[in-house]
From TrEMBL:
Keyword terms: Methyltransferase, Transferase
InterPro entries in alphabetical order: SAM-dependent_MTases_sf
Annotated EC: 2.1.1.-
Protein's organism: Streptomyces mooreae
Official protein name in the record: Class I SAM-dependent methyltransferase
Enzyme class, UniProt record, top EC level: transferase
GO biological process: methylation
Amino acid sequence: MTRVHRSEPRTRWVAAAAVTALGAGTVRARRRLAALPVLEPAPAQDPPRPPLPGWHLITAPGVTADGATLRAAADHAVREGLRVVDLIPVRLEAESVLGLLRLLDPTAHRTDRCAPGHGAGHALLVADDVHRRAGLDAATPPCSAADLLRLVRTLKEYAPDATGWALAPGLTGPPPDPARHAEELRARGLPPALLSTAQLAGLALLVKCLVSAPRWGAAATALYWLQPAVVLGPARGPRPAGLARATALRPLRALSTALRTLATPAAGTPGAVDAPGAAGEAARRAAYATALAGGTDRFFEPRRTDCPWCSAPGPEVRLRTPDLLQGKPGRFTLEECRQCGHIFQNPRLTPDGLDFYYRDFYEGLGGDGTALVLGRMSGTYRARAELLRPFTTPRAWLDVGTAAAHFCNAARSVWPDTRFDGLDMGDGVHKAARRGWIDTAYQGQFPDLADRLAGRYDTVSMHHYLEHTRDPFAELDAAVKVLAPGGHLLIELPDPESRVGRLLGRYWLPWFQPQHQHLMPVGNLKQALAARGFTVLAEQHGEAHQSNGDFLAATALAANRLAPDPQAPWSTVPATPARRAARSAVQAMTVPCYAAALALDGLRTAVARVTDGGNAYRLLARKGLG
């Protein structure tokens, strides 16, 4: 009895937090719903107009739209300067509307060039130029709702500040298919198993609060139960089918949907709805098996006995770790120079080793996940671009290590008249040029291209790039060549002097093994810049802190270490049902840890801003005029 009594105050606090979160979510959903424009077709007596020139309508099977609605959508797009419009039926099922509003902020996503594209999965109106640049067929046939959800994510990239959403009264479609729920979550870039587990945990928490703290528990349960009616009932525009029934049955339907989704085979397993082609999957596995046939020792160079930065002898081991990012075979060592503090991978990966461990990370299998993370850093991108404002107005900017050019895309909102070019080793740089995120794409090694680009740029940036390179000094020398006299060099790097890095050890994400080759204390980098004729104009630490989560990332890395994905094509253990079940169990047990980690990261970010001690630092330096 005593233990129950002592748990009641804690349960009341948890229930109160649930009421607060549900209340905030309800208000947010109402606000977002109010921001969705409602198309108003022209009166029937107006003279008929010809089909829509310059536009393409792409729909899911069974979705229809009358001519008046399409003309209203095209008129709305022209008035608002839109090139892509996601059309949302006003009779969309209640939970589908709520799910969309959790992901989509119509106002913010319209102006946020890096925000992911989300939609209802029913119909898209696409302008000719975007349709063509995205490489779509002239007459795109109806595609599944999941394909349409993927397509709106792609099209938002080709129209980053010209994608909009509208409620369409004349749009009709079939009811949602619960059997396709997992597939559609994956199409949105969301993990079905983790979300379903979190949903079940939330329902269990409501029951616990209702039993142990009846007043607060009843308030939380009522708010959850009635949320569809509160958000959608008196709303202008949407008229969800069966709203009263959906509200009354919400907990049961949520339980059923979560269980059904968990029972759906994961992508890539036998019986999965969206499993990739068997031939492609087999080829990928065969390629990894061939690469690993001789073990991983051949991916490493001989261990060096001195520091690559200052040549001091006798570096000491800082940490040893496996590949926590992808779970590929191999072990990696970071060593620290006892004289200058430089941290470096030792033994270092060979070029073939780097190719192996980079494969399927930024492109291929891991491309969607990486793009999702990079697309949520708009604030960081703008802060980097704003750092130049007191010192210069950039005209020609080269972003080195641009990957898919998310920074350049966001920086255009800060410097709209600047020419942004991008350089990277991966093929994604060419896709960035097709999207219009950069003006010119260069693929290759920066030092190899430096003579060709000599003196062309007044600004060069290297954001979380230098630590990936084999020879940081060669990269800095290349920047000297490429910059015009008086040009500016902007560098952002992980801070190896971060105290949290010592606290979390191998689970501190910025160690990023096996990709990071060098981690430089800020003093070392400043000395290297001074030796090349640069003057440091600005230095940021707290402002450069990456708020995407030291503790959240550590939790994810630890979970991946405990239960690696047995279905990964490089996995050396069979993907038995027991191993898949173990991974699902670990993911389920990790859900409350993510919540705690998220709170810690919020506190960590606030402290980093105040104390000027984050997990990264940023330097802006000017090249001499001589």
